[in-house]
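A quick aside before the break. I want you to see a complete sequence-to-structure record at least once, exactly as it would be stored in a machine-readable document. Don't worry about memorizing anything.
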Amino acid sequence: MAEDEKLTDSEEYVNRGCGFLEKRDYDQAIAEFNHAISIAPDNASAYFFRAGVYSKKDNFDLSIADFGQAIKLNSNFSFAYYPRGVTYAIKGDYDKAIEDFNETIRLGNNDSMVYISRAQVYAAKGDIDLAIKDYEAVLSVEPKNEEVKRMLEEAKRKQK
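That is the input. The structure line, written in tokens, reads:
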């Protein structure tokens, strides 16, 4: 089978897996992603989506490994850095979480959630000044974001 055909077949299983993911049938979704990977082991999206399912099942080590594999296969796959960073944060590995959030931003994903997540990790580490800087960055583009305003005020209280 030609490489293009393998990838096409693999993508069909990825699409099926995503369907099961939407239905919250996580075990079947994993089975579909596993099949996609067995057909095309270089399919980064199969690892990415399977990682997401592992996160939903609280299997954070497998999730981190799969996000890592997706990144290894496509180093510019910025979509994988952010959720891996969130997963590291859940596990309490704040330094790795910050590295992944920084890489997400470096690759051009400037979504507010990346800055909010990084700020929360900075705050959890006790780096309040850096947390405040990220909250203020979000408010500079979303001045009416009440939740971020609340987080900023809380960080400022901790700073004193």
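Two observations worth writing down. The chain has a mean pLDDT of 93. The radius of gyration is 18 Å. We'll return to this after the break.
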